[in-house]
Amino acid sequence: MKNQLFTGVALVALAIPGVAFAQSSGTIDAETIVVTGSRSQGIQGVVQPNTPKAQTVLTNEYLTTQAPGQSIINAINVVPSVNFTDNDAYGSSGGNVRIRGFDGNRVSLTWDGMPLNDSGNYAIFSNQTLDEEIIDQVNVNQGTTDVDSPTAASSGGTINYRTIVPSDEIGAILNGTIGENARMRVFGMLQSGEFTSFGTKMFGSVSYATNNKFKGPGRLEKQQYNIRVYQPLSGTDFISIAGHFNRNRNAFYKNLTLDQAKADFQDNGKFNYEQNARCLRPTPNAATPDNEAGFPQTGVTSIPGPVDQSCTNFYGVRINPGDTGNIRINSKFTLSDKLVLTVDPSFQYVLANGGGFSTLAENSALARGNKFAADPTAGVDFNRDGTIGNFGSVVGGVFVPAAPNATRTNFVPDQSAFYTPNTTNTYRYGVLASLRYDIADGQYVRLAYALDYARHRQTGEWTYLDASGFPLNVFGGINNPGIRVYNADGYALRQRDRRSLAELNQISAEYRGKFFEDKLEVMLGGRLPFFHRELNQYCYTQVTSGNPTCTSQTLGTTAAAGTTYIVPNNYVAPTSGIVGTPVYAPFAATYNYRRFLPNVGFTYRANDQISAYASFAQGFSSPRTDNLYRAPFVGVRPETTNNFDVGLRYSSSMFQGSLGGFYNSFKNRIVTSFDQDQGISVDRNVGRVEIKGLEVTANVRPFKWFSFNGFGSYIDAKLKDNIRLGTSVVGVNGATVAGQPIVALTAGRKLVETPTWQYGYRAQVRFGALSIGGNYKHVSSRFATDINDVKVPAYDTFSADARFSLKQFGLAKSFIQLNVVNLFDQQYLGSISSQIATTSNALGRVTGGVTSVPGGANPTFAITAPRTVSLTVQMGF
């Protein structure tokens, strides 16, 4: 009888329109119906809330069946139209997520209402998410944002996850995991219970995880610390403050081109191509020029095993260190019986880079600066061997010194190696506030305001390598002037130097009303984001590539200056007098974007089991920082989307299912291409994308001991326009004239990285204290280039888990759990770094008088992890 009561209450909650499980305190207050006494909702922790949007919720019940320490983004692979390709079995190396064809940079990720997408390029860093043990739930909107979502990045869907509320009772959890590839993870949490007369309660948690890479040298290490203090007020009002710190020290896996992957698989029967285990640095020698760029060194002997002569492919410099932290406050105040205020401020800190390696001649113009600008035999003795090079020549890769009395016209410099990261340091402040007014029973209006203010400093101060090739500091010289690399002018060499501001001010409004005995719920809303970017580029910018050139040299338009610089605001495409590589002068720029975005929908409940829903929402994604720094005189418009959802849901005590259709019109898609008219790489709006498809779910529990969660999707995503790359130049009778437009024939092609078909299931059985589950997923073939000349084969994955509860021994929160990722040891290509086309088709073709060339470069692919087994033991009370 008791179990029937729990089930019935949960189903009633699902039948009530408006259960959205969203993230901000205002949206939670407005949409979530709290069901007192219910233990779980949905089937096996998978919930299909009855909202106007296509939405799926995964609760802690489901999340904790996955491999401990795995990213929360990996867990949503059971949501229709979602595909996440994890770069390792434990979630420490990140991965790529796609929702209905939209990549992670176009999907809004929030945590307790706080935006997590990078404020500059909108990237999602899946390996920095919260430990799953303290995540209450994650919800995914496959196509639209919440009306108060604080984002200038989402032209597709949203991923929201929420922290657990501290327990009323004192408790503790300690679990440990061991697994293949020297996996070791420890997680501990203490619950204070209510420890004041006001009902104050809190929890604190710590986790540490490390493992070897499954291929190649290097380790991955992660530490995480969390605390949350929760103060209930009268009724459902509360104030909560939470803190988080995450530390990653990871070695990269090496991505492969398609040709490398094929060759590697043919030679080894599996994918092994990786970073080198060691690098060989020459001992500084004044008698010969030391060259760390790669040609053989005098006196260097062979060392057994994989050795990188130049260190460029050494795992010690191909790393991804990151320190991230935040403070989050959530609060709700009932001002009257009709008026409710919520306020959620936050602060975030980020310090991270992606590693890097460079060599530099000790007499280079960058090293000489202005001090020795005219003397090519002067420079900086970076390797401290007493010289910056020697007179002579290199014959067959071997240095031949000049005769003592010969005319010394040839000078061969030392080539020194450095750690050269691109480091980003971000300080980010935010606040979400909303005011809800109940007009009448079942009707309310809500006004909301969002601020997201981020200052990020993007530099990349070089530092030295130790004798084994490891950097003196994984963040370079950003916080330690004593280990920086200085040129002859005393200028600290760096990869880039820019300061940016990204500021979002957004207002939103929403009306909800129930009619016809609560059978129909109508939602009318919209948001108006005002997005402001300030850019300060302190280095020169290469015209042809968009890459920065940071130097103390005085540049000009003469041969002695060595290059041509261009003032961005007075840009004229250079046609003559070009010296060296043309660059833009340092500049400052300001950009402002705003757009009203409607968000409307309804649900209609025909009876207690059947309901229908429909929604329309517009999405918006402003240009990324890199888009705007690359070519400062080019105006790039924001991307916009029109998202339509329609569907049916069925819910009973045994079965919950849904069938939905969607259509998305995507305008002003931003790509990077080379414009031969101007001789530069630019980011521009190239056209439209049309995405349409179907989604289905089937969640069933026919017996108390068996449950099944099935899902599937069909996505037809196509580019609607060709990508113009520039204009050809054709010689006619010795004269040079303008030719045909150069385009990549992308119209009608499939959207990259988007599988047409995805389907799978989770099945679970329970036999007393033992539960056994399995996850299966099929992903059809995907294209890696916009012109569809590289296709990645389909793949299937299967993972299994088994848990033995120790509840029968009086330990209700204790268990032993076995997880197996990729049970059948399938080898396939996962994450894709897509391009316009592959360079293997560089000749192009002529069609209808229009010259079509691929452009772009070879796409690269991440290799997914083999079968990986881990065992977890948890003790708790």
Protein architecture, described:
The chain is mainly β. β38 (670-675) and β39 (680-685) form a beta hairpin. Among the domains are: 2-163, TonB-dependent receptor, plug domain (Ferric Hydroxamate Uptake Protein, Chain A, domain 1, Beta Complex); 539-585, no CATH class. 47% of the residues are buried. It has a 22-stranded antiparallel β-barrel. A six-stranded mixed β-sheet has the order 1-2-8-9-6-7. Strands 30-29-32-31 form a four-stranded mixed β-sheet, with no helix packed on it. The longest helix has 14 residues, at 2-15.
Features:
single chain, 877 residues, 22-stranded antiparallel barrel, 54 strands, 6% helix, mainly beta, Ferric Hydroxamate Uptake Protein, Chain A, domain 1, 7 helices, six-stranded mixed sheet
Q: What oligomerization state is this entry in?
A: single chain
Label the CATH architecture of the domain at 2-163: Beta Complex
Could you give a short account of the major beta sheet?
22 strands, antiparallel, barrel
What structural class is derived from the secondary structure elements?
A: mainly beta
CATH-level-4 superfamily name of the domain at 2-163: TonB-dependent receptor, plug domain
Measure the end-to-end span: 27 Å
